[in-house]
Fold:
Amino acid sequence: MARIFSFAAISVTLAAALAGCAGMGSTAPWATLVDGPRGLENWNRIGDANWRGADDAIVADRKADKTPSYLVSKNSYKDFEIHAEFWASQDANSGIFMRCADPKQITDKSCYEVNIFDQRPGQEYSTGAIVNFAPVSPVPKAGGKWNTFDIVVRGNRLTVKLNGVQTVDLQDSKLAQGPFALQYGAGVIKFRKVQIRPL
Structure:
């Protein structure tokens, strides 16, 4: 009888522990940096892309030179969750750059870049991949429709979901903290919701 009681007690304790782990998501509030056509004041601009509020989103579809342009968050983040809703043209080159080492020099080597680039020549790092760090397979397509990214960055683990389907589960400790950025490289990109919360 004592053994049965002990087993039952262990089972209850284990179930409670697992329930506690399942509920360990952030209770911090979301900070909304883009909400429809509003939110440009929440970012520092790099480059000359024509970011503006239009079509119920923040939009860019043109720049004067060949270098990419960015909207860079004013705050730095370590462990966080991002929710982003975006529309990309078939030829768009964009992305979300995270934990950037230098807020004035945004690159796919000094940041983790979650790519939005259906027509990238190297398809393994196209839409849904983390460029130079985590390839994607099978290769999803985002062009011509509204999509969602749900990105979780905690410690050395980064996960990415595109439209609810996981594309990346990366463990890497190269970059520990920094701002994040929205890129405009080519085509048309629209962000109608960008939210972040600490973990």
Q: What stands out?
A: The chain has one helix and 13 strands. Residues 31-198 form a domain with the Jelly Rolls fold (CATH 2.60.120.560).
